[in-house]
Automatic annotation (TrEMBL):
The enzyme's E.C. designation: 1.1.1.261
The encoding gene: egsA
Protein residues bound to glycerol: 121, 168, 248, 264
Source organism phylogeny: Archaea, Methanobacteriati, Methanobacteriota, Stenosarchaea group, Halobacteria
Pathway: Membrane lipid metabolism; glycerophospholipid metabolism
Entry similarity comment: Belongs to the glycerol-1-phosphate dehydrogenase family.
PANTHER family (UniProt xref): GLYCEROL DEHYDROGENASE, GLYCEROL DEHYDROGENASE 1
Binding site for NAD(+): 94-98, 116-119, 125
Positions contributing to Zn(2+) binding: 168, 248, 264
Cross-referenced InterPro entries: G1P_dehydrogenase_arc, G1PDH, Glycerol_DH
Pfam families listed in its UniProt record: Fe-ADH_2 (PF13685)
GO molecular function: glycerol-1-phosphate dehydrogenase (NAD+) activity; glycerol-1-phosphate dehydrogenase (NADP+) activity; metal ion binding
Protein name from the UniProt record: Glycerol-1-phosphate dehydrogenase [NAD(P)+]
Gene3D superfamilies for this protein: 3.40.50.1970, Dehydroquinate synthase-like - alpha domain (1.20.1090.10)
């Protein structure tokens, strides 16, 4: 009996380009939503672009968050209920988007993603990452109903946020390899289409490396396009597998043992160099990953991350404990193997 089924949830409107923030209300109109919007933002995005949103939605209620936390999610849920909101608009970098994503899940309403930094693929995906104590929770929710990515605004974000977005995309290389491996060894469901799309996204980004430079708005365009396409790959797969493998486990582990040191994208980029080494050895493609990262100005070493070698090794040897996701790390790599990988690849 044929009993397969799938449910692909994608953003319906993706608006990207110079000045498109001013078309936000038009993009929202096209969604035929009911009820009032509610703005979720944080202080600096609010300062930069809050009024441009308010100008388009008369009397819109809002909250400004200092940090992403479960408390913030509760705050948004309560305030949006009080305002009788029909949907949420998240304006900001990672924080407001992660929080709005989880809050909209709780409120059973949709949200619109308006990123002010192209720093990770969470701006498009259905996954939310919220820190709690010394750990981070990755929670499954729905992707945004629409994404409005104004490249003029994104190009003004600190450059390291853009290179973090690039590195998050480059890590798709190893994420897809881990996914294929898990499919072969653990019968994890694999989507050829999502895997190919994710890999192609990374290849296209690397192919455009020459146009990814500070002060060039086209950089924001290229990176956002890649983040959208990576998010679509996750939507098709119905999981973060196409964009999250062992390099992400490594980064999540760093978040636990060395919180707040480096950006998510930068950590997964460095992780990807080492997990690629585990996949294919000394003559493998880890040099390509390292070179792509360094061309774009993303860190390739522990020093550049601002994290000491010992912490890198601890994270690498314990990353498999983060969650039940089979990767090249298997049931854990030995300290010797971790040191060898980190040393040969020049990470430490
Ligand atoms: Zn990521």
């Amino acid at each position: 009996m044929f009993d397969k089924s799938t449910w692909i949830k994608l953003p319906r409107n993706v608006l990207q380009g110079h000045g498109v923030l001013d078309d936000l209300s038009a993009a929202v109109d096209e969604l035929y939503l009911s009820g009032d919007p509610f703005l979720v933002t944080s202080p600096s995005p609010d300062r930069i672009a809050g009024d441009r949103v308010r100008d388009q939605f008369d009397g819109i209620a809002s909250v400004s968050l200092d940090r992403a936390s479960f408390e913030s999610v509760e705050r948004v849920v309560d305030a949006a209920r009080e305002a009788d909101a029909g949907y949420l608009i998240a304006l900001g970098g990672g924080k407001p988007i992660d929080v709005a994503k989880m809050a909209s899940d709780r409120l059973d309403c949709g949200f619109i993603s308006v990123p002010t930094a192209a720093s990770h693929d969470g701006i498009v995906s259905g996954r939310s990452s919220i820190p709690e104590g010394d750990t981070r929770h990755s929670v499954a929710a729905d992707p945004p109903l629409a994404v409005v990515a104004d490249t003029e605004l994104l190009a003004e974000a600190p450059w390291e946020l853009t290179t973090a977005g690039c590195a998050d995309i480059i890590s798709n290389y190893t994420a897809v390899k881990d996914w294929e491996l898990a499919h072969r060894l653990k019968n994890v469901e694999y989507s050829e289409y999502a895997g190919a799309l994710s890999q192609m996204t990374a290849e296209m980004l690397v192919g455009s490396a020459d146009s990814i430079k500070p002060g060039l708005e086209e950089s924001a365009w290229i990176v956002t396009k890649a983040l959208v396409s990576s998010g679509v790959a996750m939507s098709i797969a119905g999981s973060s597998r196409p964009a999250s493998g062992a390099e992400h486990l490594f980064s999540h582990q760093l978040d636990r043992i060395a919180p707040g040191r480096a950006l998510h994208g930068h950590q997964v980029g460095v992780g990807s160099i080492m997990t690629e080494y585990f996949h294919s050895g000394a003559r493998g493609e880890w040099t390509d990953i390292r070179d792509a990262l360094s061309t774009m100005g993303a860190p390739t070493t522990a020093d550049e991350l601002g994290i000491d070698g010992e912490t890198i090794i601890e994270a690498l040897t314990t990353a498999h404990e983060i969650r039940d996701r089979y990767t090249i790390l298997g049931n854990g790599v030995s300290e010797e193997a971790a040191i060898e990988a980190a040393t040969i690849t020049g990470v430490i």
